[in-house]
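Recall from the previous lesson that a structure prediction takes nothing but the amino acid sequence as input. Here we apply that procedure to Helix-turn-helix transcriptional regulator from Floridaenema evergladense BLCC-F167. The sequence below is the only information supplied.
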Amino acid sequence: MPRKKDTLTLSVPPGTKEQLESIARRLGIFWGKSPSPSGLVAAIAQQQVQVGRKSFTLDQKQVEALQQAAKALIDAGHVEEARTVNTLLLNQGDSEAPLRQALLQQLNQSIQAWRDRIDQLIADRQCFHLKYRNAQSQELEYTVRYAEVRFYEKRFYLQIWCEETEEAERDTPDLREIWHNRCLRFDRILHIEPFPGVWKGELDSLKVYLHFYRGLANAYEPKPEDEENVVLGDIRQVVRRVVNPFWLVREVLRYGKDCQVIAPDGVRERVKQEIRQLCQSYNMEIAD
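The prediction returns the following tokens.
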């Protein structure tokens, strides 16, 4: 026995029926071989079809692509454009709660405002307290007595000298020379509060001795941090003043066999650890 259906009579302006049939045809809603305005109305009521400006939605790949675009815009200094992209993601992305919360937080804080304020503090040689959320969502506080804005791998970072050393003593016990240094992302800053104090004037650093071989010995391009750059036979020796070994290790690994950290042992060991972990990922055994 056929199901009983409700009857709905609509009075529409001339041409509206044809427009509804056109939409039904585009959406693949038919009765037999003909587009069905009645089926279209039923689909709208059952929320199988969305209409109007809010009908535009993004799939997961599009959401991920726009997230990457927003990050790239922020890194390039186009904060307002990044906010526009994040607003689009919030309105049309149909995102899960954690992502929506992260996007809302990013919209509510102005990265450019942090950058502008820190630039002014640096120009004034003004010490400040800084509250920060790291990648593990832990909230940390730093007493900053010197800061620089540095560019690493397509992003600007805040490099600071801070009084707190417990974290560094635990993570890098063999690199005492740079225990006071931290490298922070602007989008994870939570709060800044100036305080009266003595501005240190520079970051701590250590000397790293690098040897470049083969073609790279000739092709190496000097860096501003290089204090010495000499050719010793077939080897180019570079002595570089380093404030954060993390970025140096990444650079050395890109050079492959054509670059080697000679000293100090703490930085050399970090390169070896990265190589060991890489070999383990490919089930390769290496001897020390």
